[in-house]
Amino acid sequence: MPDMPNFNDEQPNVPQEPKPEGPEKKDESEQSSLLSKIQTLGQTNVPQMEGSSIHCLTIVGQIEGHVQLPPNNKTTKYEHLIPQLVAIEQNPKIEGVLIILNTVGGDVEAGLAISEMIASLSKPTVSLVLGGGHSIGVPIAVSADYSYIAQTATMTIHPVRLTGLVIGVPQTFEYLDKMQERVINFVIAHSGITEEKFKELMFSKGNLTRDIGTNVIGKDAVAYGLIDEVGGVGQALKKLNSLIEQHRDDESKEVIQ
Amino acid sequence: MWYTMMPKELMFPEPEGISPITQNVILYNGIPVLAERDENSSYRIIRVMSTDPSHFLMEDCQPGTVIKE
Q: Are A111 and B3 a contacting pair at CB < 8 A?
């Protein structure tokens, strides 16, 4: 993230909490060649490759929100993604974002927050579902300007219910229903699927062995209007580049007027 | 509230001896990386947290690399 403030490189700080000094004194005898490399190079980036104008967000494993998951879970953390999205929006060198999803779902509010952030970016966005984009991964996949799904990828649409922990909220049916409505409303507002069809998939019986819901595979997701096209990374980047071109044209027109 | 495919037992297994691993996001050559602190008070890179794809090609911050303080 080029917009992030640069602190001393060997400082083990989370970027949001800058401290003037390193927390520990360096033992000079332990200085390695790597350390000297860090010191010589200082804050400049190693010029190996031009910074890309297209940035990539990978959303993998569980989407972690209010509750920290045990370390056996692979997670995508809300507090990592949100600042990245802010940096992408602010950096004029970044022209587009590719969002790669392979997620089992996760926290409803974190997922919706990420979806809203992606949907409200002023820069072109393209999403690609690889492997799986289940549960709360569905609104994230449809939040981009254009969405792709790999031929073998699947998306599971099922009701929101009490799995895992609910802490400090009234566990009423109305509460669950409202949560579910938020997900449904976002999906139908940002994709081509109708409310009736989405709810039908969500509550259908017989598709999942032990549960209600539907496992939607690649081209079926496109047929239902949930995802725009079946494709891979090649098509996704081509589409993103064409959206960027279009965005540039629109901006230059605005300047002339 | 969770909306996920994964069963609760898989997400929250019985705790077997808590290992005090501390993971931090640190800036290494201007690249945000998720790193784990080991016994020798050095860091091992777990994941590159940048959104810039070119950062993933840089040899000196590949996952597994140990950064000494």
A: yes
